[in-house]
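About this split. The held-out portion is used to measure sequence recovery: a designer receives only the structure tokens and must propose an amino acid at every position. Recovery is the fraction of positions where the proposal matches the reference. Here is one held-out target exactly as it appears in the evaluation file.
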């Protein structure tokens, strides 16, 4: 995807960053949040290392929210009931407590509902979605509940969420992959699912952790085939870079898919994650100019 395509996505108020676990989408989503202007909310979902529902200011105009189903459900109930005391009575009912934890899809719905509700308080919201399977379950929940409840506030809110997530002027979907065969293929499957669910809102592809290309060799077949093992670190880097390029060519480019590349960032001892986010944020800022 050209830089102009990424610029278009990053201008939208709501951005979902999805992908297979281990592709670096958390660092990418955090870097995107740091690169955006105005008041920005970066959302992660049910992070066990942080208090449920915790909202923390992490920059002059950047906040981080640990969206959690329990607090989100309680907040939604209070908004809809309108009276705090009555909402507390409702939430203390054992049947309601059971449904809030056991009803299929309810946790996913209230988590996305929290995202949808917060969009009016910030210029941009960037969501670090769970890995592909659970992320798909979250997006499915809005349509499922809109169908299950034929009318009423839950139906209206679920329909409104679907409309927001499908509107390319309001929501952008980014899929992060690695230059490896399985993540590249799974990213296309996720793209197909998102397009089926939100027709007309084309997801953008990001290929993360790309090794730099070294001059002197155009294809894997040009390498010395005497041994499958690299001779030294430079030979390893050359082989790795060529393999990544061929993976992308076979899985994406030949099928006409464009993507935005993000390079491998060498870790800085003692502050690996912070250095990675800072470097990716700088690259994203440069691409938007």
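Reference sequence for scoring:
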């Amino acid at each position: 995807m050209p830089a102009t395509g990424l610029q278009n996505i990053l201008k939208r108020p709501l951005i979902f960053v999805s992908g297979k676990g281990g592709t670096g989408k958390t660092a990418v989503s955090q870097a995107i949040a740091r690169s955006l202007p105005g008041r920005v909310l970066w959302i992660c979902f049910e992070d066990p290392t942080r208090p449920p529902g915790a909202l923390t200011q992490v920059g002059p105009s950047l906040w981080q929210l640990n969206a959690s189903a329990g607090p989100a459900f309680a907040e939604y109930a209070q908004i809809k009931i309108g009276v705090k005391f009555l909402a507390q009575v409702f939430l203390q009912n054992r049947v309601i407590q059971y449904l809030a934890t056991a009803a299929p899809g309810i946790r996913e719905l209230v988590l996305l509902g929290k995202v949808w509700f917060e969009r009016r308080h910030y210029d941009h919201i960037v969501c670090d979605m769970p890995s592909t399977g659970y992320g798909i379950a979250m997006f499915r929940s809005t349509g499922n509940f809109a169908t299950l409840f034929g009318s009423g506030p839950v139906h209206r809110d679920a329909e409104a969420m679907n409309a927001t997530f499908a509107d390319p002027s309001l929501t952008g979907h980014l899929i992060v992959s690695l230059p490896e065969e399985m993540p590249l293929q799974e990213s296309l499957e996720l793209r197909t699912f998102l397009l089926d669910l939100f027709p007309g809102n084309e997801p953008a592809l990001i290929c993360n952790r790309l090794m730099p290309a070294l001059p002197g060799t155009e294809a894997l077949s040009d390498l010395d085939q005497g041994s499958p093992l690299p001779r030294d670190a430079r030979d390893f880097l050359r082989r790795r870079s060529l393999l990544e390029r061929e993976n992308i060519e076979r899985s994406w480019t030949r099928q006409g898919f464009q993507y935005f590349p993000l390079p491998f960032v060498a870790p800085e001892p003692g502050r690996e994650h912070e250095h990675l986010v800072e470097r990716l944020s700088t690259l994203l800022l440069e691409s938007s100019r």
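Annotator remark: The chain is about 50% helix and 15% strand.
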